[in-house]
Amino acid sequence: MLTYAIRRLIIAIPTLLFIGLCIFLLLDLAPGDPTAQLPLTIPPEVKEQIREALGLGQPVHIRFWKWLVQFIWVEPLNLFDFLFGTTFADGWPRIISWQSRSPVMDIVVQRIPQTLWVVGMSYVVGVLIALPIGIISAYRQYSVFDQVGTFVSMIGYSVPPFFTGVLVIVIFSVQLGWLPSIYDTTHRVVDWETFVFQLKQMVMPVMVLALQTTAQISRFMRASMLDNLNQDYVRTARAKGMTEQVVVMTHVLRNSMIPVVTVIALGVPAVFGGAIITEQIFKVNGIGQLLITAIQANDLPMVQTLTFIFAILIVLFNLIADVLYGILDPRIRYD
Q1: 15, 101, 119, 137: which could join 275 in a potential S-S bond, CB 3.0 to 4.6 Å?
Q2: Backbone angles phi, psi at 96, to 5 degrees
Q3: Domain count, the chain
């Protein structure tokens, strides 16, 4: 397993380099100019000097190489300096946001806690709710519980988050007045009252995002359980006198989790970038909202860095899913 993981990590290097090149070229060819929002009174020669200062006057391959070195080498060195108090990164230029003129990774690190609080929590809640719903729905197929679970899942699939987000705001904030409609990112938890307020402002965005996660994973879990419940090994286990709990929870569940693990693992990168609409609705200053504002401002260094981070997460969690296959099913070997 270790050899397989190392081999996959080595293969991931050229894959990520190619993805990074594609991202850079697509954004470089996209329409838009960082000087387009400047006042019209600024002379064209001054705008050209601004473009030169941003590095846009250099050839594409040089700009890509500089950005790649900054992302792979300079930013990790800055993180190492921050953690251990060293000065290895002194003098090295960092990836600078055109919009805020601040290091991109510093802004990303500031936004990640908000994303993990809301979007990460919603994903965990959605998975914890979806797995038992899928298991019970498959075991009690066509029962009232299965019908209700199917109905809720169809709602989660069909209704977009921008509609459910506005709907819960109207119900729980405007009509009932129970929950705040805007997420206060400056709020700090210092005592019990502030902790309760934090929970209240997290309820609605977590509810909206968890609905989609629950709908998707519960359907996968149900389908996988139904496929395994009719297998020969299940009838053999029952014929040997095993209890129904052991048959379902030990044998059927373990085999059913193999395809579901892929859905769960590949959904983790979406935690960092898939809640763009929800973060906009509830004013959560997370990674999703950061990406939207960067796109609107033609902040190419920010957009390039965020999309490349998402690509790294997808490749990494794809590897984690493959490793979990071997843990769940001993028949799978990568030697």
Answers
A1: 119
A2: -110, 135
A3: 2
